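Suppose you are handed a protein chain with no further information: no name, no annotation, nothing but its sequence. What can you learn? This example shows the usual starting point.
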Amino acid sequence: MAVISFSRRLRELAEAQPDRPAITCGDDTVTRAELVQRGDDLAVYLHQHGVRQGDMVTIAVPNSIDWFVAYVAAWRLGATPQPISWRLPQRELDAIMELADPSAVIGVDPALDDPALAGRCRVPFGFRAPRADASHLPDVVSPAWKAPTSGGSTGRPKLIVSGDPASIDTDAPPPLLLGTDGCLVMPGPLYHNGPGVWSCQALLHGNHVALLHRFDAEATLAAIQEHRGTVLYMVPTMMKRIWRLPDDVREAYDLASLRVVWHLAEPCPEWLKQVWIDWLGAERIYELYAGTEAQTATVITGPDWLAHRGSVGRAQPGTVMITDADGSELPAGEMGEVWLRAVGRDTPTYRYLGAAARTREGGWESLGDMGYLDADDYLYLGDRAADMILSGGANIYPAEIEAALQEHAGIHSCAVIGLPDEDKGNVVHAILEADPTEVDEAELKQFLAERLVVYKLPRTFEYVQEPLRDDAGKVRRNALRQERIERGQQAQQAQQPHQSQQGAQQ
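A reasonable first move is to predict its three-dimensional structure. Written in structure tokens, the prediction is:
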């Protein structure tokens, strides 16, 4: 076993093939040698401004080569990269500053008048550090190789600090079926955990990363063809938009180089997965379920999925358990809370800043998801426990209804929530990214009635023009629900003076 720092690994790769492309983003490409040099330059600059081993470095940078340079610089100093969206509102940025307490923030305007940034080194997006000799910097290891934030769907954000240091066993096989000397095509936003993990691991194992500035369906296919992509990262929203391209556009691109298509991060409708299997072949389609916490993951291949339709796979490594509300383990086939347990480790896979883990005796942890195991220990997911709709005594899982809605050709994306109801407790409300002039509601109701039992059918529909899922395929159901409850309350309050006036006149 040869365990070395991430920084040393990147230097060795650069020494072996200095001119090999490391990252391409749009029209810009950086070689291995150039990436290491730019990382060293920024590391020296950050060191001069107080960044030290064990510090956090917050990175608020859009998809670009600069994002990787910031990571490489942080690792060079033994600091922990802490990625966030560059579009965060100030309130959320301030909350993260309080939790992370970074010594440097990369990607923010140095002139931004924000007390939370006071005393921290601030580096604007696009900054090129002066050329520097980093030989005086020791080869150190970051105690945590990443510290992303949660999705923020419930209250204040939290940081999920990796339990793994920024070191790599060069004798171990590459994770995630990445191989070596291939090309990862990455259309997802790097500040999210999945795209960041895949991209960093691809880079560390000698692969070329072909990065999109932002997801575009046809541009993703073009990147696969141009760079001979071997591994593709997807979320189902991306898969759907690619599939909805005209047949002649989609089929015009040569995708023969692809070995693996990974999809994760959100439930994948069965019809969508099936058409991708029919298109590219089951042997190329892989699905992964895991949290940023990385206690364990489940993986399923295309052939296995055909034998266990709807499953997200079996744990590898680690174990999965399903319990009822009282904490009793449930038998195969019964829906309950999903519990995960890591195996083969002496240290935790993560630690929270700003939250407490949901745990139980025996090393089990829960991310709040619902699901069940079949007789072969394949996991099938429902929804987050917090997203489940209790209506008239029935448990309704939004993902099931969303999957049915997404089969409709006129619906670009959707979110299903429960709204308070005096009679049933909650009723199902569907929010649709669609043109109401192109979707006949009566036809839509009939379409759903052919796919869902009557108590799961949406009671009301709402049409919006803005995307309901972010670039990583995440939907903030709790926030959507709260917005509509508050809107309803405001409308009710506005009605009260009018009603009182009518009563007085009578």
